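Lipoprotein
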Amino acid sequence: MGRARARTLCATLAVALLTLTGCTYTVSGQAVAERADAPLTPPLEGTTWSGTDSDGRFYVFRFKAGSRLAYTSPTGTFDKAGDTWRQSGASVTLTFNSGYAVYKGSIVGEDMGGRASNVVGKKWEWSVRRQ
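Predicted structure tokens:
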């Protein structure tokens, strides 16, 4: 294989690899990958979201540092160690009361929502909007 052809092949493979995997950079000390075809979802830490569940109950979620979740629900306002959040790109998991209830969902722009369940088998949907 000629040198010119080998260089062209290497350049083509490099472009294909970058297109498929995207680039990585650092946000708040954490490596973040972003694909050219999918916009980066901003981190939740420090944000507040509010909305309702499928039973019509109103909630406010406050995403605190260290994956701590503070929230207001129809039963009161809480900020306990057993309430946590985890974000992976646009996917979000909220865990309440050390796992009694788990909300799984995704972020799309200024909206977040998904499905939830608790240890006694109740299932519902939820949706909130960034404040």
